Amino acid sequence: MKLKQLFLGFMIASTLSSQAQNNSQKVLFTIDNKPYYTDEFKRVYNKNIDLVKDESQKDLNQYLNLYIGYKLKINKAEVLGLQNNPKYLNELNSYRTQLAKNYLTDTKVTNELVQEAYERSLKEINASHILFLVDENALPADTLKAYNKAISIRKRILNGEDFGTLAVQYSEDTSAKENKGYLGYFSTFRMVYPFESGAYNTPVGQVSPPIRTRFGYHLIKVNNIRGNRGSISISHIMLLKSDNQETNAKNKNRIHELYQKIQQGESFEEIAKQFSEDKSSGPSGGRMGTFSSGELNSEEFEDVAFSLTPENALSKPFESSFGWHIVKLNKRIPMKSFEEMEADLKSKVSRDERSRLIQSSVTERLRKNYKISTDKKAYASLAKVFTNSFYDGTWTSESVKAPFSEVLLTVNETKFSGRDFLEFIQKNQNKAIEIKPISNMLAVLYEQFTDQQLNVYYNANLEKEYPEFNHIMSEYRDGLLLFDLMEKEIWEKAKTDTLGVQAFYNKNANQYQWNKRYDILVVSSTKEAFIKKAQKLLKKGKTAAQIKEALNSGKELEVIEKEGIFEVGSTLLPKNLQDKKGVTSIVKEGDYFYVSRIKDILPAGPKTFQECESKVINDYQQYLEENWVSELKKEFTIQVNSDVFEQVKTEIKS
Fold first, then answer.
1. Can you list the domains of the chain with their CATH numbers?
2. How far apart are CA 365 and CA 376, in angstroms?
3. In this predicted model, what pLDDT tens digit does every residue of 314-348 receive, in sequence order?
């Protein structure tokens, strides 16, 4: 079973919906006496069965076998201690944090953010920025230092110094050395929310005050604002840039030859299939997916594409940082209405940094739902350690010698001490540094502390409050463990076990075969007269360059060639090739005439190890996995409750 299929069967789905389950739990099977229950098996089967393309996996007996194999691997991962790997724990925690945002929702706040996002999406901002890095959880002194530096540079800009020059000199965005802080055009959701807000709230030609994001402080200069250009569907032909200057010169000349062929009426799509070096779009006639401004990594490509109109739908050849292109307009898609975009915007808002605003609203709900109490005596005792010296910015929680270990705050059954509050103040004192008198400052910080602990408690108990959240986290947790285990036990071994890979190839060499191949020069043209001339030149032994020079001497590009070794079945070969060296007869396919010179015919036969190494390694990985599961079944004791499984099959089928 391939790894992708495994993850398809057991990794979480993108939706949070879950099917109703029978609340009764029965032990379906055990692994070393660890029980696995029917409700989980039925839930996973029902959720994923429509995604499974292999019909054999829909068979419940086969599915149970796969499911047990999956759980065996998780048990093996735990035996190896992979669940304690810091990288694994960090990734799991990061995912949980992201997933939890879906539960921090407030309809009113969400709708306001969605409306704001739509209104902003109607415009595209062209901006530059200067970044002053500071960690999101940096010490107050470091945060203040970055802020003051941003203020200082902004004053210099307002006094007339060049923004781009200062960006090169001071920005801690590494790309600024080359682009002078230039970001190009973007719209909503392309930048982190505070940065987006800073850009949309800054007039054209002006520089924002320091804008705080999780990366640090930014100075944002808005260069221009234009209406959203909508989306566009295009096709393109691309010849890639190379480190070889001779190849680049050839491709630059070739793109103009291809353009001339299109101008002569030849099919854009056919030329793209034959010559475009964009592997993702070339085989489909150059067609790319729909995109809008800022989604590609080439502003010059986007600008050319969006300049096309139905009346002028084909670009001239042009160069980008990636290569040389010809672009053809397929369709322009204008901005959708709010009603059409609302659902998508809500989804984006829930995943965006805007969700913090929603979380603030949720906090108010938590205050109403949870039992919160403060020990007033402990609070009064703690308040005495603060004096006006706190405003100097030098205060630390360690300077308070009293332990303050008694309970200060209680959220339901969870308790927080005075020392917890002192440490919170240490981390957050800069947020309330200007609040006076000291008693008011302390009250504000305590409210913030309470809000934080409410959310800490809420997040810690999401698995208890929301069964579907618990299911998703359990599946993701296992999925990560499985990935790490496969990397350790299968993938790395297959890459490094050179003797094993070679032995596997030797044993299965008959599976790695070439079809018959032709070492061939193919010349094509839409005009039969010119292909006949090409045929005569081929019979005289002329090279591709000599044929092109002889037949493309006029204003129009009459013939074009491709040369190399191609396997039978390749789209680059003309159909119905004869099995004889020499010049072929002329054949016509669609609008094109073809003639070829077959230099050699390479018979079908085995591939050398070097010719199929990557395929051998992939097959070896699959072989190792299949045998590994068999070994795991020997390592662990498995007991299946057959009677319970029969009940499960009846319930699922009904």
1. 123-227 (3.10.50.40), 231-333 (3.10.50.40), 370-462 (no CATH), 514-606 (3.10.50)
2. 23
3. 999 999 989 999 999 999 998 889 999 998 998 88
